[in-house]
Write a structure and sequence with these properties.
The protein has 681 residues and is mainly beta. The chain is built from one helix and 56 strands.
Length: 681
């Protein structure tokens, strides 16, 4: 964009050559180019962010969200057209609040020598000093000081020798992410001479007081209350709403010198003022509520007020101001200082169970159902009532996250669906066939779909694999081949398979996940016949780092238990906390299958699952042979569950069928040290 002038043989041009974001930051730089009869003092650049207030560009500025930036250049008498640029906010380099430097001390050493100390209270920053308008004493023109930088945690000082006066600008910068402070403007006069700082201006309109000062100075004010008593001196940051007559005083300062104190009496003009908005902060999201029957909420982070339209996500700490405007009246301006926490728990509701996780295993997790009485979270928690809200926060390295929450409601048939995985991390789910003569496993899956099994339940023999339901995808694994699907944290993946398929699959993921639903969906529709020889053994065994966190909401098929159906199903999974739901059922025995097959049904099922703390097994101890009921003794029972709990956790809960009294204690039955709960379901 160019601004060109040509008159009486004199010509100049000026243009904005580049508007860009500095590398690894959210800092915007505007660069101009000039030529001809024009000086830097003649050039002024103006910009605005997201249709906000126009500002003169004096130095780099930061954006705090995706931004549209308009800018134009003024060169002497002529103004260029407005040009627009779009920038995306980089969440990997959040803007941080850098405090403006201040003069910590001025030390008079001797005649013609003064030392000035600058400091900022923000850690890990560099202070840069810029000197201009230097007036030297006669005979010392070559001894002007240079610009200087230094770390903020050791004072930055500058020795001025034979300098009568100068203007010093100081700025603090964090070079790791490009954040920087406002300028401090310090007018130095030799030997402590007087400095003139422009007086601020107090403005008053529509019951709103605003104070304007020269850029670079801090404005402080005090104001009377309804009884005429003065407040303490405060730093001015945003307009002040009044609801009664007040008197206000203000002055500008650079930290060492101050302007004159100005004052003004402001008379309240009446009208019904709306109530102030209510600001809340949760899970790094700011919400502003309007307590009035009408009106519009305005908010700002940087004195550029915009209309509030909905919750605001933030990626750095800071302060937000807001007010309500209604029928020409404004409420008080309220502010909220919020602290960005880069970590928080994740809450999942699977079936009727609450799961809480974090990205770091060493985090300590707490939960509560009333946001007051928090308890240590160690294992999944059952939903305590029909509906409610669960709250949670994390402690990490002596820091606490914000409290986040999730609503829940009890679902009596929560498990009546396909086998499902709820992912706690990004990653891949791998499907590997381990039987070379396997002619193919065809599996349909849907990610985050609302379809349920019952909506597509054609029944035995009626599956139309060439007519895949909307939203579903298909994979086929045969021989010794493998397939994988990529999933993201929070995804829910549902599976259903071809009728009569004998899986012969390893299914695993190196990302943590929760299992739920009927495992028999890997045999086809809900009402399909599931043959007693179906072999799910080793399907989720710890291979390639499989990380099943919990399976208590997964239901095993219990109509027939013959063959090694679930042998080594989770063997070696050191992350597994809860085993699958084994409903009430009976050990079957018919003339069609060798009797010995029944003794391997649950062998090694949880072998080496060192984190396991929960098992629910309601199998009774009756078998059928030629129409007769025979009660199995403890030795028979031990063969069926041979070494199924070797190496599990030292404490936990075991839920068993009430009438079953033949459970042994130890690796072939109820793990030693666990509590036992009877159930009749």
């Amino acid at each position: 964009m160019d601004c060109i002038y040509d008159e009486d043989g004199l010509s100049y041009s000026v243009r904005i050559s580049r508007v860009s974001k500095l590398m690894n930051s959210n800092t915007i730089q505007i660069v101009t180019e000039k030529s001809g009869d024009i000086t830097n003092e003649d050039i002024h650049v103006y910009y605005r962010i997201n249709n906000g207030e126009w500002k003169e560009y004096l130095n780099y500025f930061n954006i705090t969200s995706d931004s549209v930036i308009d800018c134009y250049v003024v060169g002497k008498e002529y103004t260029s057209p407005i040009s627009t640029y779009n920038f995306e906010y980089d969440e990997n380099h959040p803007v941080i609040n850098i405090l403006t430097p201040y003069v910590d001390n001025v030390e008079h050493i001797q005649n013609h020598y003064d030392r000035i100390y600058f400091k900022t209270d923000t850690e890990n920053c560099t202070i840069t000093l810029y000197l201009s308008d230097i007036v030297m004493e006669s005979g010392h023109e070559n001894e002007a000081p240079r610009n200087k930088s230094g770390l903020s945690n050791s004072l930055v000082d500058i020795l001025l020798s034979f300098v009568s006066s100068c203007t010093i600008k100081a700025q603090a910068v964090n070079h790791n992410n490009g954040s920087f402070s406002d300028y401090l403007i310090y007018n130095y006069v030799q030997d402590g001479g007087s400095v003139v700082i422009p007086d601020p201006v107090i403005n008053f309109s529509n019951n709103i007081i605003s104070i304007t000062s020269t850029s670079g100075y801090t404005t402080r004010y005090r104001i009377t209350d309804n009884n005429g008593a003065w407040s303490s001196w405060m730093v001015y940051s945003s307009p002040i709403s009044i609801s009664y007559n007040v008197r206000i005083e203000a002055y500008a300062t650079n930290g060492a010198q101050s302007s004159n104190t100005v004052s003004r009496t402001c008379e309240y003009s009446g009208g019904v003022r709306p109530n102030a908005p209510v600001i809340s902060f949760n899970d790094n999201i700011i919400t502003i509520n309007n307590p009035n029957a009408g009106g519009t909420i305005y908010y700002t982070f940087d004195n550029q007020y915009v209309i509030y339209t909905g919750p605001i996500s933030v990626s750095s700490s800071g302060t937000i101001w807001a007010y309500v405007e209604m029928d020409g009246e404004r409420s008080d301006v309220v502010n909220y200082q919020y602290t960005y926490i880069g970590f928080k728990p994740d809450i999942y509701i699977v079936g009727n169970t609450i799961y809480i996780s974090s990205d770091v295993d060493s985090d300590t997790i707490y939960y509560s159902f009333d946001n007051q009485n928090f308890m240590l979270y160690t294992i999944p928690v059952d939903i305590p009532n029909s509906q409610g809200r669960v709250y949670s926060y994390i402690e990490r390295n002596s820091l606490s996250s914000d409290v986040v929450y999730k609503d829940y409601s009890y679902n009596g048939s929560a498990n009546d669906h396909e086998l499902s995985f709820t992912m706690l991390e990004d990653g891949d789910i791998n499907f590997e066939s381990y039987y070379q003569n396997n002619d193919g496993n065809t599996i349909l899956y849907i990610i985050n779909g609302t379809n349920t099994w019952d909506e597509w339940n054609a029944g035995p023999g009626n599956y139309q694999w060439n007519n895949i339901p909307q939203g579903y995808s298909r994979l086929r694994v045969s021989g010794n081949s493998s397939e994988k699907i990529h999933v993201n944290k929070g995804d829910v993946i549902k599976f259903k398979a071809d009728i009569g398929m004998d899986p012969k699959l390893y299914i695993n993921s190196s990302s943590k996940y929760i299992m739920s639903g009927y495992i028999k969906s890997l045999k086809g529709p809900l009402n399909a016949t599931v043959y007693s020889t179906t072999n799910f053994s080793s399907m989720f065994r710890y291979r390639n780092g499989n990380k099943v966190i919990d399976a208590r909401n997964m239901i095993l098929d219990t109509r027939d238990y013959l063959g090694p159906n679930y042998q080594s199903l989770f063997e070696g999974d050191i992350y597994l906390i809860g085993g699958p739901n084994i409903p009430n059922g009976q050990i079957a025995d018919t003339s069609n299958y060798p009797t010995i097959l029944r003794y391997r049904v649950f062998n090694n099922m949880f072998y080496g699952c060192s984190s396991l703390k929960y098992i629910r097994c309601l199998i009774n101890n009756t078998r059928y042979i030629s129409g007769r009921n025979i009660t199995l003794n403890s030795n028979d029972w031990a063969y069926i569950f041979n070494q199924w709990c070797v190496g599990v956790g030292n404490e936990g809960k075991f839920v068993k069928y009430t009438d079953n009294t033949v459970w042994a204690n130890g690796s072939n039955g109820i793990p030693t040290g666990w509590t036992v709960q009877d159930a009749t379901i």
